[in-house]
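seq as requested:
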Amino acid sequence: MTVPWRSGESVLSDDELLLLDPVFDGGLCPVSLLDQRVYRNQFNRRVSHRLDRVELVRALRRLEELGFVVIQPYSATGGSRHAGQPALALTASGGRVWERERRPVWDRYVVERYPFDRGDWAVMSVAGYSRAAVDDFLRVGEEHAFWGPANTLRRQRQAVAATLPLIRWRPTQEVHITNVVSSSDTYRWRCDWDGLNRSRTWWRTPDELATLFAHD
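struct tokens:
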């Protein structure tokens, strides 16, 4: 297994660190989705951890005892088949450990959400700690047909929200947001993935972080 880059500055094993990756942003993750058999596809990872079910339970218990995670009932707006099931959440202490290991470059981090979908179009909200990262994400994505043919995105408005908890365990800081309207039928368009990855200056996931930045 070729694991993502890490600094080696914690007591965590490679497998334990991989368990923290899906919740690095402070969100909840149903424990069932951390099963080794579904982990890679569920989170679109290059690799999976090597823990069987018994080892997974043991690893989660250890992470909880270390104060890096909490296990709590899963809840989600709009209902979910995982509702009420045990879910993993990162603590502030766990976030700091993850940060020391993965060395995220926060001013290049972006997150995209789709709060409204009206059938043939959707409203997309892109947020990041840097205006340049948000603008690059939209520009490069459009150039390489990430959402459909070029020049199909329509920007609605731009805003700065100083209190938005982009990463729940991190201190609050200025966050830049752009809302755009995009085609909902993105599956019909063939994205130029090679071109997009060559031009990418941002990261959304630990794997994108690892391939974007070289570490000493």
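The two ends are 21 Å apart (CA to CA).
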